[in-house]
Design brief:
- The chain has a domain of 25 residues.
- It is built from 2 helices and 2 strands; from the N terminus they run ααββ.
C-alpha cells in the first residue's frame, strides 16, 4: 500500500516468491542476538580521512558563470523542475 505499485497478475506471481524469500531472510536476521553488538555504519573496518576545512583560492563569480547557458547577474538560471513559482496544484 505504501509503495502503491501497480503490478499485473503475472508480475505479482513472479515477484511473490522472491518477496517471500526476502522476508524469510529478514526474519532470520531478527533472531540474532545483537545485545552486545555496537551499531556500525559499514561492515568494513575503515576510518574516514577528513581533511581540514581550510579557505583556499577559488573561482570568482564571473569565472564560474562565464560558460553558463543562462545567467542572471550572480546566479545560474535553470528551468523549473517542479513547475513555476506560485503555480497552484
Amino acid at each position: 500500500m505504501l509503495a502503491r505499485l501497480e503490478l499485473s497478475e503475472d508480475e505479482v506471481n513472479a515477484i511473490g516468491p522472491q518477496i517471500t524469500k526476502i522476508l524469510g531472510f529478514v526474519e532470520q536476521l531478527s533472531e540474532l542476538d545483537t545485545e552486545d553488538i555496537e551499531p556500525m555504519t559499514t561492515a568494513l573496518d575503515v576510518d574516514n580521512r577528513w581533511r581540514a576545512d581550510e579557505l583556499k583560492p577559488s573561482l570568482t563569480n564571473d569565472q564560474a558563470l562565464q560558460n553558463a547557458p543562462a545567467r542572471d547577474d550572480n546566479c545560474f538560471l535553470v528551468p523549473p523542475v517542479l513547475g513555476t513559482a506560485g503555480a497552484k496544484s
